Amino acid sequence: MDLDQRPRRLRRNKVIRDLCAETQLNTKGLIQPYFVCEGNSVRETINGLPGIHRESVDNLLETVAQDVEFGINKIMLFGVTDRKDALAATAYDNENPVINAVREIKQKYGDDLFIAADVCLCASTESGHCGVSVNGDTDNIDNDRSVEILSQMGLRLAAAGCDCLGPSDMMDNRVEVIRRKLESSGFKNTIIMAYTAKFASSYYGPFREAAKSAPGKGDRKGYQMDFRNRTEALHELELDEQEGADIVMIKPALAYLDIISDIRQNSSVPVAAFNVSGEYASVKLQAEAGLIEEKQMVIENLTAINRAGAGIILTYHLRDILKNGWHHG
Ligand code: PBG
Ligand code: ZN
Q1: Measured CA distances, 125 to 11, 85, 215 (Å)
Q2: What CA–CA distance (Å, rounded) separates 72 from 107?
Q3: Residue 280: nearest ligand to its CA?
Q4: Would you kindly state where each structural domain of the chain is located, as residue ranges?
Q5: Four-way CATH pick for 23-328: 1.10.150.120, 3.30.70.1230, 3.20.20.70, 2.60.120.1440
Q6: What is the 145 CA–ligand 2 centroid distance (Å)?
Q7: Whose CA is nearest to atom 14 of ligand 1?
Q8: Residue with CA closest to ligand 1 atom 2
Q9: pLDDT tens per residue across span 246-303
Q10: What is the pTM for the complete model shown?
């Protein structure tokens, strides 16, 4: 063919670019995370997560009320506690800040606000691990005992009115055990958004400071996925779908776009990705240093995650996006 090829025709101006854009980031698929702690009138800043706080239930209710004004109607709660023991009793006791927050928020907003909650033991174990250990040996997390405690936690959250459980522990079979417990207790509509492919990652650093959940010794490589692996994510997908997951999640997001794409192509349920704390912090730090334009980088990152195949994205940036109108071009 002797014709000149001119792909720039479709890039000539913004209207044409908008017309031809394949991916239109939809803020309706975004979920805002929060950290809930015990006590009253607590509102603490978090090093590494500028703009995000640790709040007691009373203050959380006020923050959520403001966020609802900005248009947020999907939230994810993470618990923070100083009451830690070997068997993670705080994960499901009466003083659990997330369970109490869910109850109060649900009472106020009903179905106008979608509440998801993290289901994991790392905030409540003295070891900081996501499961309980055999004889305190943190290299030897007891899978089935941990799953039993996780399912107790899930049941208490569902009973408080939680719309969606997000098990992030990466124990085997926990989706099935949680699902069976929910079904037998009459919670037939509780959604399980499984952390299906959760990798052992450096990108969780700021979160662990926020949730006071860093492992005291050892790492999480005995239960979270090895980032050298790709097909293993498809195995986890198959298991989570069989076990009754309604939504499957990949985490982190930006260094794992290939995994998001693989899972999107092979999943018959909605796919979510977690734009994690370390990803958020790197944008914030670069913006504070004047190296980048924050809005542009946030939209680029989230569009990439969406383009790879995640229709649902958990992101700490959501409040800024809606507050500043970044989603309107
Ligand atoms: C707890 C949990 C973690 C995150 C979500 N749930 C941390 C971890 O596994 O160490 C990370 C979220 C983030 O970095 O924003 N299991
Ligand atoms: Zn955990």
Answers
A1: 54, 5, 9
A2: 17
A3: 1
A4: 23-328
A5: 3.20.20.70
A6: 15
A7: 204
A8: 168
A9: 999 999 999 999 999 999 999 999 999 999 999 999 999 999 999 999 999 999 999 9
A10: 0.97
